[in-house]
Amino acid sequence: MNIDCVDGFPTKGEAGLYWLGQAGFWIETGRYSILIDPYLSDSLARKYAGKKHPHIRMAPAPISVEDLPKPDLVLITHAHTDHMDPDTLGPLYDRFPDLAFMVPAACEDAARERINPRANLILVDSNQELSPLAELTIVTFPAAHEDLKRNAEGAHFYLGYGIKCPTFSLYHSGDSIPFEGLQGRVETFAPDIALLPVNGRDAQRLHDGIPGNFTFSEAASLARTVPILVPHHFGMFDFNTISDAQIENELARSSHPHVAVPVLGQTMRLRGTG
Known about the structure:
The protein is α/β, with parallel strands linked by helices.
């Protein structure tokens, strides 16, 4: 499989990825349009105005929620606002009230509050395999956003998703750090593409209430058996990113054979699928 990049939003029916910023992607499988973790508003800038970390966007959203076409399915990995955003998901529900949102069961209350109490929620936990649409399989993975947080019933607050369709398979880890058993799960799933966060983590951010993610090298290691690695979760907030220079340095020393760095406003077309 190869990737080439073109300006603009994906063409329906043509396999490709469109980065929305942070962990958000619009995924075209060739048959279905899947939206994952969209943050297209400035809700966090309003929430944290005047605070130590004001959450001001480093770049505008590449598309507005009003301009999004209707996806066939929305996947949400966890309830942090840059992944489950009321000012993105609420208006999306208003436009498409029959739209299905797959969310962690542990985050149901937050999802109903932020999307709509009547939203069509598909509640999931880790280690499930579902077929929400014909010829589309979703596999759920646990994720450790610093830890494998669970509720009193044992349901995971943080999830990753595997997407299988006739054209390709893809793994989106959600927000996570490495943890025991994850490598084996990824290798068993055997995706063609891994979408992994690379903003890293440190003690100061954790002290400030900002849980961390893989470093670039950790992401490359996790994806060592995956043909294509797409790094993300950078370039949104200046206190929780890595710079362009750091990315270039990581690319220069990375042993991964094919790292495709996404660019806002461009579609990464997937060639050689099917």
